[in-house]
Amino acid sequence: MDNNDYKGSRILLVEDEETLAIGLEYNLQEEGYSVVRADDGRKALEYFRSYSFDLIVLDIMLPYYNGFEVARSIREKSPRLPILMLTARTEHKDRVLGLELGADDYLTKPFHLQELLARIKGMLRRKTWYNEASNVTPIYYFGNNEVNFDDLSCRSGARQFCLTSHEAMVLKYLVVNKGRIVSRKELLDKVWNVSTEMETRTVDNFIMRLRKYFEPDPSNPIFIKSVRIAGYIFTS
Predict the structure, then answer these.
(1) Which CATH number fits domain 3-127: 3.40.50.2300, 3.40.50.720, 3.50.50.60, 3.30.70.890?
(2) Burial 34-72 (b: 16+ CB within 10 A, else e)
(3) Which residues face 184 on adjacent strands?
(4) Nearest-angstrom CA–CA distance, 71 and 101
(5) Cβ neighbours of 179 (radius 10 Å)
(6) Predicted TM-score (pTM) of this structure
(7) Alpha carbon of 180 to those of 7, 212, 230: distances in Å?
């Protein structure tokens, strides 16, 4: 797909730095996106409840509700809506918290405009892939597990829970590529669209969490197996 496939996509831009927000709004509109701008967390949630969006660009440091609180509220209602977090914070714990709350990507200020645009395009592309893949097999069974890739609800034995959008994307990619070794680099490219060493460790952490959800013995996995150096392979 080229960029024209995503023109008209509606983006909620949540940023309280007026100069930055105006510049981003202008450039996103120049790319063909429809943009609704909010300058605080309260307005962001009001717009989210009132309109339909294809993606959210969300700053962390906001008046009323911060970006983490906004992301948590959005995820309760819309587990699959792509969220790109913007922040001046560089601490690893903030990035991990954002991802655990359901953010799909994380960009640290200051950033290059072209990098932001590339991240947005990648997120919309992955959203399209996930939707198409989920339409083919919305509910997947393996072992004593059931995964609904539509609403992200899951069952493992008698236990019920929900995945985050990133957890679901990782699992879905492994399921679609069942029986084939998937490298960390491939997961970073197809699911995260990033390549730094820190995110490599993040991939491993997500795999560990999926094993805790679905494996009878997470320390000796039978579904999501590690292949030394090469990556991971899903079998069922």
Answers:
(1) 3.40.50.2300
(2) ebbbbbbbebbbebbeeeebbbbbbbbebeebbbbbbbe
(3) none
(4) 7
(5) 8
(6) 0.71
(7) 34, 22, 11
What tens digit of pLDDT does each residue of 142-200 get?
999 999 988 889 999 999 998 887 788 899 999 999 999 999 888 887 776 665 554 56
In terms of Cα–Cα distance, which of 123, 115, 92, 74 is closest to 198? 92
DSSP state of 7: T
- For 110, the 3-state DSSP assignment is coil
> What CA–CA distance (Å, rounded) separates 199 from 79?
21
Unique residue bearing structure tokens 């069942």: 178
* The CATH fold of domain 137-234: Arc Repressor Mutant, subunit A (1.10.10)
How wide is the angle at C-alpha 95 spanned by C-alphas 154 and 227, nearest 5°?
60
